[in-house]
Amino acid sequence: MDELDQLVPDVFARDCASRPVLEHVAGRWAILALAALREGTFRFNALRRRVDGVSEKMLAQTLQTLERDGFVHRRAEPTIPPKVEYSLTPLGEETADKLADLIEFVEARLPDVLAARQAYDEARAAHA
Amino acid sequence: MDELDQLVPDVFARDCASRPVLEHVAGRWAILALAALREGTFRFNALRRRVDGVSEKMLAQTLQTLERDGFVHRRAEPTIPPKVEYSLTPLGEETADKLADLIEFVEARLPDVLAARQAYDEARAAHA
């Protein structure tokens, strides 16, 4: 890779800084958290209920990574107990729109995927 | 969840079959493999070079999962040695278009992410 190449982010290059960012937003829980936050501001526990199945630890890690990368805004009110709210930044909104597009597509095409799987497994069984 | 809900795929529900499918296409190596295959048909080793950094084992697993789900077509010619080629199915093409859109966005906005990280780390250091 010469110097000029390094000026243009390329996720296909193993050391490009864009690759971990892609992994941060496309990660298992990040996709769901970002897509959920399109619905509005969430407190931590409400978001945890929305992203059904995520552990407290994984959601906290995911949100911190997304906050550090500038996709999520964390707002803590200095009350007792502290009230902490999460929302999308403008960058996060654009990202979440693209993820929601992917999610809707996967949900809509689930019957095709299940049919493909059945055909694959039957072909394997026939050759076994 | 009542019976009617189960008829409509919802990735936010932990047991919905759409959730693992989303994870299959948005997985670390799957995103890159699907996006690479938009460029055309690849033999295994050529695809492995394109998806810089992937191990032989991880790429093989990724491609098998994507083939079973109907996103990737595997074609083996009965030559010696066997010539195996991978390409996108129509379903895979649509998926890969959405992933490429996400990749291009992340690459384009990398400077914003790096700036956000720097601001985050500086704010943390100031409070430490």
UniProtKB/TrEMBL annotation, chains A, B:
TM regions (residue ranges): none
UniProt xrefs under InterPro entries: HTH_HxlR (IPR002577), WH-like_DNA-bd_sf (IPR036388), WH_DNA-bd_sf (IPR036390)
Record keywords, A-Z: DNA-binding, Transcription, Transcription regulation
Coiled coil: none
Lineage top rank: taxon: Bacteria
GO molecular function: DNA binding
Gene3D superfamilies in alphabetical order: Winged helix-like DNA-binding domain superfamily/Winged helix DNA-binding domain (1.10.10.10)
PANTHER family noted in UniProt: HTH-TYPE TRANSCRIPTIONAL REGULATOR YODB, TRANSCRIPTIONAL REGULATOR, MARR FAMILY
UniProt-recorded name of the protein: HxlR family transcriptional regulator
